UniProtKB/TrEMBL annotation:
<keyword id="KW-0805">Transcription regulation</keyword>
<dbReference type="InterPro" id="IPR036388">
    <property type="entry name" value="WH-like_DNA-bd_sf"/>
</dbReference>
<keyword id="KW-0804">Transcription</keyword>
<dbReference type="InterPro" id="IPR000792">
    <property type="entry name" value="Tscrpt_reg_LuxR_C"/>
</dbReference>
<keyword id="KW-0238">DNA-binding</keyword>
<dbReference type="InterPro" id="IPR016032">
    <property type="entry name" value="Sig_transdc_resp-reg_C-effctor"/>
</dbReference>
<dbReference type="Pfam" id="PF00196">
    <property type="entry name" value="GerE"/>
</dbReference>
<protein>
    <submittedName>
        <fullName>Response regulator transcription factor</fullName>
    </submittedName>
</protein>
<feature type="domain" description="HTH luxR-type">
    <location>
        <begin position="486"/>
        <end position="551"/>
    </location>
</feature>
<dbReference type="InterPro" id="IPR011990">
    <property type="entry name" value="TPR-like_helical_dom_sf"/>
</dbReference>
Amino acid sequence: MRQKRWSVADVARELERGRKSYKRHAWADAYQALSLADKVVPLAVEDLELLAMSAYMIARDDDYLRALDRAYHAYLDAGESVRAVRCAFWLGLRLLFRGETGRATGWLARAKRLIECEERDCVEAGYLLLPVVQQHIDAGEWEAAYAAAGNAAEIGDRFGEADLIACARHLQGLVLMQQGQVEQGLRLLDEAMLAVTAGELSPLVTGLIYCSVIDGCQQVYAVDRAREWTTALARWCEAQPEMVSFTGKCLVHRAEIMQLHGAWPEALVEARRGCERFEKGIDPQRPASAFYQLAEIHRLQGDFTAAEEAYRSASRWGWEPQPGLALLRMAQGRVEIAAGAIRRVVSATTDPLQLARLLPACVDIMLDAGEIEDAHAACQTLKEITDRFDTGLLGAIAAHAQGAVELAEGDAQAALGSLRRALQGWEQVKAPYMTARTRLLVGLACRALADEEGASLELDAACAVFEQLGAVPDLARLESLTKGPLSAHPHGLTPRELQVLRLIATGRTNKVIAAELFLSQRTVDRHVSNIFTKLTLPSRAAATAYAYEHKLI
């Protein structure tokens, strides 16, 4: 077939189509038209920048870098070094995001050298401060990071550069939140988001700030804001059906919010879409977070095989599968493995907000393993983090953990106070699953205090929510924990110790119990010792008699 011969009019028509498509945010059409024109006649530098941005928005990363590289050299050849600096900055930033530190540093150094050769002040100097801010953040140098971001914002204000102002202000907000000044930080994020939602920023900066702000809100458990901005991000993505960049992250954020609010089937669909976009070649971005979110929902629903596969996929793509994988092992009865995994990741984590994400699971696993002292220590660390960052939801998480520990220690009255505080937090953010988990513990505390009617109300309410959500493991746990009239014996045994006591009463040896529960014999020996101490029992025969007398089996 003979190749079409392009005329000047043909090229002009494609250029016009590409420019109009760009203005409409029809990114794929803009990319196609500008690329066709570029094959015939090399694009002018302004059109090269349009081509680069269109390539970015449809996740053609290498094409984005090539077009921006060409624009850089074109500006340099034309003697417009300041415009070349901006291209070099975006090249360096994108390469940093890709983990190509050497090339990124080279481009940023090149941009800095060109700026130093300029005898006039320019807004690009402010952009070059943004990687410096990030370097300070990575090093934990919060005051230096805040100051550098403030300098960038001042330059943006002086030149009226909305993109730079929003980037710098939101970075200042993130720094303040890391320092424990959560409300002040959130106010700066809100200020940046006003420019985002008003459409005042470039498409690339809009997407970057959406994702960064939502991540920041989720780190400090600012759920209401995360939900608000995730909804806005979804609307922005839906208005640009040809866009690929940012849409995968949007799906994961939506899945996280849906899971919190109890819409598990919908959350599963969104997480699965995030995985499928990569598998089908629609989105080249690694789907690690989508696989992790998929695994979490499968675990909560009791589909342990699917959960394990998804956790492994997340790990293959570079995502730490904890604490979810450890919680899966606990649900499978493999508590020794769960305890080892959670101890490993907690001991290796120094960032307090990342630690806060791990410690609730650590408390649950340590309690299940009968390691009450370790659970107490994890709970105390979580409380210290909560006191520092003081967000409502994080307070509810810490109060739930404290109540669980107090209940395991046999102080049901104190546990009730902690658990009531947790309930207030869960109900405020409309988190039905966590509300039900807390009401389960409230029911057990009521039974330990001989309030059978109160216990029945709480346990029935928890059961109804678990059934509605399809939380199969929690339904099984509820049945296990509430077996027998617990009000008759406020013994203070942990759930694992109760399980061991029942097996002792059937005549099993410690070795057999260890095999059945996937525990080491040493751990079972410790559980048996704890049971004898708490119940003031002299022997296995006495323990068996106690179990039958109190109808535990």
